[in-house]
UniProtKB/TrEMBL annotation:
The keyword Kinase does not apply. Its main location: membrane. It comes from the Bacteria. PANTHER family: CHLORAMPHENICOL EFFLUX PUMP RV0191, PURINE EFFLUX PUMP PBUE. Residues 22-395 form the Major facilitator superfamily (MFS) profile domain. It is a multi-pass membrane protein. It is found in: Cell membrane. One of its GO terms (molecular function) is transmembrane transporter activity. The chain crosses the membrane at residues 21-42, 62-81, 88-106, 112-135, 147-167, 179-198, 219-241, 253-273, 280-301, 307-326, 347-366, 372-390. One of its GO terms (cellular component) is plasma membrane. This is MFS transporter. It comes from Kangiella spongicola. Gene3D superfamilies: MFS general substrate transporter like domains.
Length: 398
C-alpha cells in the first residue's frame, strides 16, 4: 500500500513537472500574429498606396508608427498593468489586435488607419514582455528558457512563414482582405485562449520592482548592452536585405535569400528550445560568431556558387533565437517583476531596430550596401567579448 502511495506521488510530481506544450504552442501563436500585425503592411505597400492615394513614406509609416508606439508605451503600460490577471490582460490585448486589424481593412481614412496601427502597437508593447513572464510562471525554473524559446518561436515563424503567406493572400485577394483575415484569425486564438490558458494573478508594483530598480542591476545593464549590439548588428543589414542581395548578385534574388535565411531561422529556433536553459551563454556567443561569419562570406566569397546561399542560411541560424536569448537572459537577473525586466528589454530591442534603420539608411546613402555588413561585424566583436566574460550574467554551461 505504501509503495502505491509513493508511486502515485512520483507520478503526480512528474505530471506537475511536465512541460505544458499545448499552452506554450498557443502562446507561440500569439507572438506569431503579433509579429504579423506589425509587419503586415510591408508586404503590400504598393496596394495600400494605390488604394489610399498616399506616398511610399506614408505607407511605410504604417509599420513605423506601430513600432514607435510599442517602444514608447511598453515600460509605462507594463508597470500600470502588472496587478491585472495575466490571462485576462492577454485576452484584452488579443481583442485590441483583432479590432485594430479588422477595422484597418474596412476604413478608407488614412488618419484613422494610423490611429488603429498605434493601438495595435500599444497592445504589442504590452504583449511582448508580459507573455514571456506569463509563460515562465506556468513552468518550473528549470524550464524557463524552454518556455521563452517556444513562445518566441512564433515571431520567427511569423517572419519565415507567416509573412510570405500573408503577402501572397494580400496580392491575390487585396490588402483589405489580408488585414480582416488576420484580425479574424486573432479572434479565433483569443477564443481558444479563453478555454486553454490558465489564470495567473498579477503582481504589485513596488520600489523594488519598478523599471528604475531593474535598471540599477548591473547584470540587467549588461543584457541591455548585448541587446543593443545584437539587434543593431542584425537589423542594420536585415532592414536593407534587398540592397545587400543585389550587391552580391545572389542567384535567385531576394526570394532565394529569404528561403535559406528562413530555413536557418527555423533550425535555430528548434535548437534554442532544447538548449537555452543550460547553454544560454554559448548560444549568445554563437549567435554573434555566426553573424560575423555570414557577413565575411558575403564580403569575400559570394562569387563562389552556393557560398552566398550558405551565408544567408547561417545568418538565419544566428537571427532565429535573437528575441529568445535576450529575454531569457534578462529574466534570469530578477526574481520578481519579470514583466518589468522583459518590458525594459523589449523597449531596448525596439529602440535598437529604429537605430539600426536610421544608421543603415545613412550608410546606404553614402556608401555601398556592404558597409552594412562591416558595421554588423564591428558591433558583433564586442558582443562576443562581453558574452565570453559575462559568466555570472549568462551562466556557465551545464
Amino acid at each position: 500500500m505504501s509503495e502505491q502511495i509513493v508511486s502515485t506521488q512520483k507520478n503526480s510530481e512528474q505530471t506537475q513537472q511536465a512541460f505544458p506544450w499545448v499552452i506554450m504552442i498557443l502562446m507561440s501563436s500569439v507572438t506569431f500574429v503579433g509579429l504579423l500585425s506589425e509587419l503586415l503592411p510591408s508586404g503590400v505597400l504598393p496596394s495600400i498606396m494605390a488604394d489610399l492615394s498616399i506616398s511610399e513614406i506614408q505607407a511605410g509609416n504604417l509599420v513605423g508608427y506601430y513600432a514607435v508606439a510599442s517602444a514608447i508605451f511598453a515600460i509605462p503600460l507594463i508597470a500600470l498593468t502588472m496587478q491585472y490577471n495575466r490571462k485576462y490582460l492577454l485576452l484584452a490585448l488579443l481583442s485590441g489586435f483583432a479590432v485594430s486589424n479588422i477595422l484597418s481593412g474596412l476604413v478608407d481614412d488614412y488618419s484613422i488607419i494610423v490611429s488603429l496601427r498605434v493601438i495595435g502597437g500599444i497592445c504589442a508593447g504590452i504583449m511582448w514582455p508580459m507573455i514571456a513572464a506569463y509563460g515562465m510562471r506556468l513552468v518550473g525554473k528549470e524550464h524557463h528558457g524552454k518556455a521563452i524559446a517556444v513562445i518566441m518561436a512564433g515571431s520567427t515563424l511569423g517572419i519565415s512563414i507567416g509573412m510570405p503567406v500573408m503577402t501572397a493572400i494580400g496580392n491575390d485577394f487585396g490588402w483589405r482582405f489580408e488585414f480582416v483575415a488576420l484580425g479574424c484569425f486573432i479572434a479565433l486564438i483569443a477564443l481558444l485562449s479563453v478555454f486553454v490558458l490558465p489564470s495567473a494573478p498579477g503582481e504589485k508594483l513596488t520600489k523594488n520592482t519598478s523599471p528604475f530598480a531593474v535598471l540599477k542591476i548591473p547584470a540587467v545593464l549588461i543584457v541591455m548592452l548585448l541587446t543593443l549590439l545584437g539587434v543593431v548588428a542584425h537589423y542594420v543589414v536585415y532592414v536593407y536585405i534587398t540592397s545587400l542581395v543585389e550587391n552580391v548578385h545572389l542567384s535567385g534574388g531576394i526570394e532565394s535569400a529569404l528561403l535559406f535565411f528562413g530555413i536557418g531561422s527555423l533550425i535555430s529556433v528548434l535548437l534554442a528550445v532544447k538548449l537555452t536553459d543550460n547553454h544560454l551563454r554559448s548560444l549568445t556567443i554563437g549567435m554573434f560568431v555566426l553573424l560575423v561569419l555570414s557577413m565575411l562570406i558575403l564580403r569575400f566569397f559570394s562569387s563562389i556558387p552556393g557560398a552566398g546561399h550558405f551565408a544567408f542560411f547561417i545568418w538565419g541560424l544566428s537571427f532565429g533565437p535573437l528575441v529568445t536569448l535576450f529575454q531569457a537572459a534578462v529574466s534570469r537577473q530578477v526574481k520578481q517583476a519579470k514583466d518589468i525586466a522583459t518590458s525594459v528589454q523589449s523597449s531596448v530591442f525596439n529602440l535598437s531596430i529604429m537605430i539600426a534603420s536610421s544608421i543603415g539608411g545613412v550608410l546606404l546613402a553614402s556608401y555601398s550596401p556592404m558597409s552594412l555588413a562591416y558595421l554588423a561585424i564591428a558591433l558583433s566583436i564586442p558582443g562576443i567579448l562581453i558574452s565570453l566574460f559575462a559568466k555570472k550574467t549568462l551562466g556557465r554551461d551545464e
